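Researcher: I'm comparing several assemblies side by side, and this is the next one on my list. It has 661 residues spread over two chains. Same procedure as the others: predict the full complex and return the structure.
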Amino acid sequence: MQKNKMTNNPTDPFKESIANSQKRLLALSASSQKIIGYFCTYTPVEILHAAGFVPIRIGGGMGRMDKAAAHLPEFICPFMKLSLEKALGGQFDFLSGLVQGYSCDAACGLVNIWKDIFKGRLFHSLPIPYNNTRESRAYYRSAILELTARLETIGGQFSETALKASMDLYSRIRRLQLELYDHRQKGNPAISSSRLMTLVDAGALMPPDHYLFMLRDFMNQLPEDSQEAKDGFPVLVSGSLIEDSGILDMIESSGGRIVADDLCNGFRQMFPPDGQGETPMDRLIDRYMNRFPCPARSRAVDRSRRLLDLARDSGARGVIFVVQKFCTPHLADYPAVSETLKKNGIPAILVEMDETWQMEAQLKTRLESFFEMTGSRA
Amino acid sequence: MEKTQKSTKRLATAKELQKVVAEYYLRCISAKSEGRPVGWMPPMNGAIELFYAMDLQPVFPENWSPVCAAFGLTPQNFTVSENMGYSRDLCGYLRNIIGYVHGLMNEKDSPFGGLPEPDMLLSPGGGCVPVMKIFHALERRFPNAKVFYADLPQVAVEDIQDYHVDYAMSESQRLADFLTETTGRRLDEGRLKETVILSDRACELWDEIMSYRRCRPVPFSAAEMGIMFVMVTLQGTQIAVDYLTRVRDEIRQKAEAGVGVIENEKIRLFWDNIPLWYNYGAV
């Protein structure tokens, strides 16, 4: 069932930028602009940007592990396996380093593996406190200052003035992204969820000021009345990094209508758009201490509450968990979170994706059955 | 079910371990009746010394999983946790302990009398994700337990800076305050000093024991690594120091006499990661 038919789609430039990202980033690094990679959005990109680097999110994409098998066991998530595979194939040669905000064990381990393999670059794991107390924030501040010192060893130049500018820039970007999410949540989506994801993903693969320019241009082209279809069972999609947005199309062509998400490369990285504080550093720390949580760094009970709020605010009547295979944080939370949702009248289904991101007929049947059962109970 | 076999214990002190283990778990199960509040915690994080210094009973659910494995109980525990929705791709320690606290713990038959319910939970933020998630699940399972939300720096040993140490100290003080507030017991600095001295001595003995693995022939095998039990559960006690002293003496004697685990060593293997607790005979 094809819901959307758009010609000269305004998201096409974003799609093209993703397709050409490696070529562009290689050219950028060749022009002496240094680029720092990160796996996870707990990494404070504003710090990297303020120090003069372009932060780029490393992704795994789709495929099979080959060269990376010499370094990794099979039972690691596709994201980590395939990002190393791409790195070993030279696809991240434009990076001057990798900074990882400590989230899950796999990503933490991979930083060390990358460090062993790719000599001569900066590799830094940023410890992040799990509590939000005065002492925790002081500790986090010290950890960030250590990061800035390390960035300076590879030519970075950090200042609070530059940090303010970076905070303002990323805040503007997130607010625009959230405006698009708001359209979707209010039942007036400007674009399909898969195209929305393309638009968001593009922002992680280019300099942020360039992205803001593209985003503003796109927002100026939004129709006042959406032509997107509004039928389908309203669902919230929750999970880890989605490497193939085709899964979102499959959900929406199987009887669902995505009204919100709690995804690693979706809402979770955007909210809140900014923090509060007297100084730019206070503002940054506040933002990251209060960001929408990932299960790698939060309790199921807290996530459940937030998911219930998101569902209520968006009108979602079901949740689809899309999780990468072997992802411990998401899999470990699933029983408790799905039980809480069920007790509150919100059915849930878990979909696990391996590194091929193949979406076979079996998955479509599962989704269609889920929507038939939930829709008939509504 | 896969056929398992017990390992061959060649050290007299390794055979003695069963008594040490049994006595530890008997102390755990009798703690409340003896007036010692029980706290469940992850291992090797600096809290054990505080507990022994304040005469509290530390219990290590993570360490209980190898005991379950040794007694062949893990399949039963796995069935319980998997029926709750926990994926088979998750850590076996996590699936075992979550299955245990929702299943076998509520029945009469458990090895060594089982684990006592916690009065307190030291729920970690750091460490590994499965341990963190185990304790989140324990918070839900034991809603009456007082929870300490623990945090420690996640940093490689060679990268430790002053600010990491400062934070660890502030967290340790916060824990001591929590224990006092929860149990009514004050931390005596003199007793803590004694406990830490014993803990350090246990570490010295452990390092010395491990150093004998360089000898040819090697005087003890990885199959006897169960001796680390005292480093996990009894660090900071005289029991650990006395036991490890006996282990060290026996191993030193074998090393000096050139007595190895096997004759004619040809290939020496390095065992990486966690032992096969459920089938130690395979080692």
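Model: For your comparison table: The two ends of chain B are 18 Å apart (CA to CA).
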